[in-house]
Amino acid sequence: MLYFLYEWLSRGGHEHVPVLNLLKYLTFRTGMSMLTAYIVAVAMGSRFIRWMKAKQGRGQPIRTDGIARHVTEKAGTPTMGGFMILAGLFVGSLLFGDLKNVHVWVVLGITAAFGVLGFMDDYAKVTKQTTAGLSSGQKLVAQFIVSILAAVVLIVFAPKSPSTAGLETSVVFPILKNLVINLGWFYVAFAAITIAGFSNAVNLTDGLDGLAIVPVMFAASTFGLIAYLVGNVKFADYLNLHYVPSVGELAVLCGAIIGGGMGFLWYNAPPAKIFMGDTGSLALGGALGSIAVCAKHELVLGIVGGLFVAEALSVMIQVAYFKKTGKRIFLMAPIHHHFEKLGWAESTVVVRFWIVAMMLSFVGLATLKLR
């Protein structure tokens, strides 16, 4: 919105307002988006948590077949804290993003749709006081419908240039700079799997205080830089990256994710005063997945978000192996609970997983130079 103001005043010959000239710089708007999102999330904090406690009563149901101490230590904690992150994300993005950019609206649309889906799941759990909300089938169908529509919008309406012809339906491989596979319209399915899959992976990771939000911020930082680089023709050419017109604007949204995440972490740090819930985890996972699709770095997302991938795989492997043999590979899935069962303190699991997520972000960034 403020970028509109800058453009309008510039067209009207008002360039003499120096402070408004800052709005033309993507880095400035990204920083301001981050700060704004942080302030919004923190400002909501205490009042929002009190309101959620009053509305939810007994708070988020805790698995009785899981870690025993969770039942006593976490009982009564409200959920749906993702609203705090999303409020900061949308305020920061809408204030400082370029609202003419199709990538911005695709990512915000997916984030909003997945946030609504997560709210419905959280609401079902809280009102019925059960850990089973919407069925996995219901959620997957809704996620795939939204993701498919988003992928089609990107293919049809995203800005293109002669040098990037066919890139909108192609999969770009990291490190191997000349390996690009054009899937045609089959790319829609690939993009939908990326977005929906990563949304659910983040959702599965959100099981301990602060566990999911910090790796989300690491991934957002990495992809904010990736979007900035591939959206700048000079940087993309220097690094031998595939240039994606106008995608650099997503750095503003990544900044808002980081800022909203920091504001939420203020209250989610152990012991958590509020949980993110599916409202936040499904939305943030969808946001990161769609940003990777927009920036044509879907495979790099698997590296940067390797922690989330490992969490999802641990559940899939556990379920498949148990159905086949009646035995378990992990003491409990997702894998962060396996380490708790081994005797690791919750804070130890969380911090060590943060370290893994940070290192994977560095590895993901390294692929930009290793061509």
Q: What are the main properties of this structure?
A:
371 residues; 2 strands; globular; mainly alpha
Produce a short descriptive summary.
This protein has 371 residues and is mostly helical.
Provide the fold topology.
Elements: H1 2-11, H2 18-21, H3 26-56, H4 68-73, H5 82-96, H6 102-128, H7 136-157, E1 170-172, E2 180-182, H8 187-205, H9 213-230, H10 233-238, H11 250-268, H12 277-294, H13 298-304, H14 306-325, H15 335-341, H16 346-366
Antiparallel strand pairs: 1-2
Report on the architecture of this protein.
The protein is 67% helix and 2% strand. The chain contains 16 helices and two strands. Strands 1-2 form a two-stranded antiparallel sheet. A hairpin with a 7-residue loop joins strand 1 (170-172) and strand 2. Helix 3 (26-56) runs antiparallel to helix 5 (82-96), helix 5 (82-96) packs antiparallel against helix 11 (250-268) and helix 8 runs antiparallel to helix 12 (277-294). The longest helix is centred in the first third of the chain and has 31 residues, at 26-56. The chain is globular and about 60 Å long.
Which shape, going by the Cα principal axes? Answer: globular
- Spatial strand sequence of the major β-sheet: 1-2
Terminal CA distance:
38 Å
Low-confidence runs (pLDDT<50, min 5 residues)? none
Helix content estimate? 55-70%
* Beta strand count: 2
Which band does the percent of strand residues land in?
A: under 5%
Largest sheet: 2 strands, antiparallel
**SSE class:** mainly alpha
Mean pLDDT comes to 91
SSE order, as H and E? HHHHHHHEEHHHHHHHHH
With helices defined by DSSP (H or I, 4 residues minimum), what is the helix count? 16
Rg from Cα: 21 Å
